[in-house]
UniProtKB/TrEMBL annotation, chains A, B:
EC class of the enzyme, as a word: oxidoreductase
UniProt organism field: Geomonas paludis
Binding site for dimethylallyl diphosphate: 40, 73, 123, 217, 219, 261
EC number: 1.17.7.4
GO molecular function: 4 iron, 4 sulfur cluster binding; 4-hydroxy-3-methylbut-2-enyl diphosphate reductase activity; metal ion binding
Protein name, per record: 4-hydroxy-3-methylbut-2-enyl diphosphate reductase
Primary gene name: ispH
Active-site residues, as the UniProt record annotates them: 125
Cofactor descriptive note: Binds 1 [4Fe-4S] cluster per subunit.
InterPro entries: LytB/IspH
UniProt record, GO biological process: dimethylallyl diphosphate biosynthetic process; isopentenyl diphosphate biosynthetic process, methylerythritol 4-phosphate pathway; terpenoid biosynthetic process
């Protein structure tokens, strides 16, 4: 059985950076917290917990003088301000692309634009981005949503970094159709599109796909969905322990991919486990 | 034979305004000029000439102390400045929608944007709009054109007022795909789209279409093209004198439409001429 690992499986730039910053802070010791999970990987969160890093939901839960790590998806402007006021040492692991989107929203608001954020309203990244608006701000997920918005003379558009380009295009076209001015910052990070394209190609060339990543990770769930449409024999797992040897009955080629928040060690465990199952079968 | 006149045939808001301003100036007397034809209607230009208004191509050709009328399509910033320097009395008949596009280009340039104008590079409106840029400016007519442009961090987009919305959308999508910031002013005037839609509908309901307007008028040529695709029996004319009675052999219903620069008197002459031909046939 051949195991083919997608070239862009796993950590993107922002997640790699956030994880490094978090483990560095953990190594230093002292009271260390993250505001919400550092990345959407329960395994990484657990490893940090084992090193003494606690994940809390509110600055109020953090002891004075502690270190707080801001997760890759970013936090709301008020939370960051609360951390500053509480005199906490701040390690800002916000993905630089998310940071850019937050800054653009702040600028657009300041310059009198009504802000339109293309994304998922309940995603923490979007909630963080939205919080930087000081004027009117709306989260939309389609052109149809734009049609329902009130009259706006100046529209400022940014996107959740993991949105598809087609999505952004559709929303911008709907804004343009309203006339007036539309100012767009393309804040999409193409790591997501690249990983999806590669995964799609791989799913077309194998008999079985294994998608590794947090069950709470939107981008991993999307990868699994893309694979499933092409190949019903697709399995979304978080860890190697969830693998069922029966999945590989009669399989010649297995494709493996992983979401942006899946660490290399989990991917390695999975590929090793699949190879071991293969040896067992032969042996 | 039934003659059906399109509801939006003829003068749009900007052309009506420009024509009124020009005839008012002509009525006042004195040396009066237009810089280029006031609108794309040779018949209107001729009528103004009969009233003593001369069309010239250059401010240098105008006597000091004269009145100069700026045509509906606008002129280049340098020409307007030259007219001011020459101490001419200026009647600015630039279409307010074109004026807006010129102002947006000036603002975008001033704020450090590279300007992208969606339109026809040789059209006087576009040449006027472009002249308001003080930085880099490019005229494009498709998304493909955008791909060939040099790297730009901040793109400012405006459109020739008569462009189609699909066209603007395509260019904006190509700009967004380059990343960075895209600031768009939708400067399209929907009079063109409304007239085209209505004409298309009418062409589908008649046996013969008559399109009236200057042979040098881009929007009239486009109307004739739209009709011809649906109805080969389409005739583009400038005046009633160009009508051939043979066109109406066996025709039950004639549709009549006219470009944005076609005056009402020319449309009336055409519908009267068609009715007269019909009476001759019966008589």
């Amino acid at each position: 059985m051949e195991v083919i690992l997608a070239k862009h499986a796993g950590f993107c730039f922002g997640v790699k950076r956030a994880t490094h910053l978090a483990f560095d802070a953990a190594d230093k010791g002292g009271d260390t917290y993250t505001l919400g999970p550092i990345i959407h990987s329960p395994q990484v969160v657990q490893r940090l917990e084992e090193m003494g890093v606690k994940s809390v939901e509110d600055v109020a839960e953090i002891k004075n003088g502690s270190t707080v790590i801001i997760r890759s998806h970013g936090v709301a402007a008020e939370e960051l301000e609360a951390a500053v006021r509480a005199n906490l040492e701040i390690v800002d692991a916000t993905c630089p692309f998310v940071k850019k989107a937050q800054e653009h929203v702040a600028t657009l608001s300041k310059e009198g634009y009504d802000v339109v954020v293309v994304g998922d309203a309940v995603h923490p990244e979007v909630q963080g981005i939205v919080s930087y608006a000081t004027g009117r701000v709306y989260v939309v997920s389609s052109g149809k949503d734009v049609e329902r918005l009130p009259r706006m003379a100046k529209m400022g558009v940014v996107a959740q970094t993991t949105q598809s380009f087609e999505h952004l295009n559709e929303v911008v076209a709907a804004c343009l159709a309203r006339g007036g001015e539309t100012r767009v910052y393309n804040t999409i990070c193409d790591a997501t599109a690249v990983r999806q394209e590669e995964t799609k190609k791989l799913a077309g060339e194998v008999d079985c796909m294994i998608v590794i990543g947090g069950f709470n990770s939107a981008n991993t769930k999307r990868l699994a969905q893309i694979c499933r449409e092409l190949l019903p024999r697709t399995h979304h797992i978080e860890t190697a322990g969830q693998i069922d040897p029966a999945w590989f009955e009669g399989v010649q080629r297995v494709g493996v991919t992983a979401g942006a928040s899946t660490p290399k060690w989990l991917i390695d465990e999975v590929t090793e486990r699949i190879s071991a199952i293969d040896k067992d079968k032969i042996g």
